[in-house]
């Protein structure tokens, strides 16, 4: 699958077969996340891989009880390491670290899709609760949970804007 096909056919997958996703596949996803661009190449992002069902349950409870979190084989927490970026960029480091983290999320979703895995980007959660569950250090922000499993659904592509949000030369 080339990058054009991966971008065009990736979907949020919220139902999984329950078959195992192995550590090699997770490793390929993490490497793709680490290969994403980052401000000043500071790579102000950290990844937490969760397989423990009791932790997944707590994450689900802190994320509006979204079923895909309980049912995923693996959940990957992606964090913005604000202090790592702030050392060089001061207050701008918060924005940069969030962008560093989200750039890696998209790389990981596309890579998982190319591997035949299904993922969902989860952003609806209680930040403080997720930080507690994952033991995040002071200043590190939870940005996304990525649920990972083998796809048990093939959703249609939700509609996208075509020209409505595209501006030429200026807004
Ligand atoms: C910042 C962000 C937060 C999201 N949070 C959730 C979420 O909490 N739960 C969920 O099911 N999907 C979540 N999604 C996935 C979107 O619902 C999904 O990307 C969108 O509906 C388009 O569908 P597609 O990914 O299949 O193209 C999130 C996506 C983004 C970018």
Instruction: Indicate the structural class.
Output: alpha+beta
Rg over C-alpha atoms, rounded to the nearest angstrom: 17 Å
* Gross CATH architecture: 3-Layer(aba) Sandwich
The ordered H/E elements are: HHEHHEHHEHE
How many distinct helices?
7
What does this structure look like?
The protein has 7 helices and 4 strands; from the N terminus they run H-H-E-H-H-E-H-H-E-H-E. The longest helix is centred in the middle third of the chain and has 23 residues, at 92-114. It has helices spanning 3-9, 23-34, 53-61, 67-71, 82-89, 92-114, 127-134, and strands at residues 45-50, 74-81, 118-122, 140-149. With 171 residues, the protein is α+β, with helices and mostly antiparallel strands. The chain has a 4-stranded antiparallel sheet, sandwiched between helices. The protein has one domain (3-149): NADH Oxidase (3-Layer(aba) Sandwich), CATH 3.40.109. Bound molecules: flavin mononucleotide. Residues 11-12, 14, 66, 120-124, 155, 158 line the site of flavin mononucleotide. The site of flavin mononucleotide has 11 residues, from strand 3.
Which tags fit this structure?
single chain; 171 residues; alpha+beta; NADH Oxidase; four-stranded antiparallel sheet; 7 helices; 4 strands; 42% helix; binds flavin mononucleotide
């Amino acid at each position: 699958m080339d990058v054009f096909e991966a971008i065009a056919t990736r979907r949020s997958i919220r139902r999984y077969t329950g078959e195992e996703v192995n550590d090699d596949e997770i490793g390929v996803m993490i490497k793709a996340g680490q290969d994403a661009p980052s401000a000043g190449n500071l790579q102000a992002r950290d990844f937490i891989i969760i397989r423990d069902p009791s932790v997944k349950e707590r994450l689900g409870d802190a994320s509006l009880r979204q079923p895909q979190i309980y049912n995923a084989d693996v959940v990957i927490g992606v964090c913005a390491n604000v202090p790592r970026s702030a050392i060089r960029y001061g207050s701008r480091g918060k924005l940069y670290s969030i962008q560093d983290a989200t750039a890696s999320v998209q790389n990981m979703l596309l890579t998982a899709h190319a591997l035949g895995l299904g993922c969902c980007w989860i952003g609806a959660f209680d930040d403080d609760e997720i930080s507690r569950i994952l033991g995040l250090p002071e200043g590190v922000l939870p940005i996304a949970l990525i649920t990972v499993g083998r796809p048990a659904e093939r959703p249609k592509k939700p509609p996208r804007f075509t020209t409505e949000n595209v501006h030429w030369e200026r807004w």
